[in-house]
Amino acid sequence: MDEQRAVAWTEATWLNPPLTVEPDGADLVVSTRDKSDFWRLTSYGFVRDDGHALLTSLPAGSAVEVTFLAVLDELYDQAGVMVRVDEQTWIKAGVEMTDGTPHLGAVVTRGHSDWSMAPVSEYAGREVTVRASRSGDAVTIRARCENGPWRMVRLAPLAPEVTAFAGPFCCSPQREGLRVRFTRFVAGPADAALHATPDA
């Protein structure tokens, strides 16, 4: 992706600040609050909107990338990128622990949440980058492990006229104290085409 710029951690704003936030050189290390989560109604019947997200503006025609390291070892531990309009309209995408294995997936919420995922045991304990690209009436989510190839995760609708924000997120629905090291947060132009592969 050309013309990337680093987003300073202090430039973005926390939605539900984590238990701890610790700058460590260029990285940001956060610890989650107890039973933090983002979910809306589907199947479980409850609404949770107390996960942690560090958000900056995501105007139409732009993209963000978030890179992180985390030991996901409890059920539903998760980290990645969030795209947020309001509490009923959002996307979270990244890596989540379920069925004893890390899964790459996304939850798209428009009134009700859905959930798609695929196992990625090879991602365990390794640096992951998740990219959200907003173009036209859609957000394209891609991810990669370290310097591996980009993998398509999700194409989801997002009205071009709405105001949206995006950035790193994490939560731990079953516990307190998931530690996530965010190593990179950059913004830039949206992908040129749906099947374009962003530059490293």
Automatic annotation (TrEMBL):
InterPro entries: ConA-like_dom_sf, DUF1349, UCP022704. SUPFAM superfamilies: Concanavalin A-like lectins/glucanases. It holds the Pfam family DUF1349. This is DUF1349 domain-containing protein. It comes from Actinomadura alba.
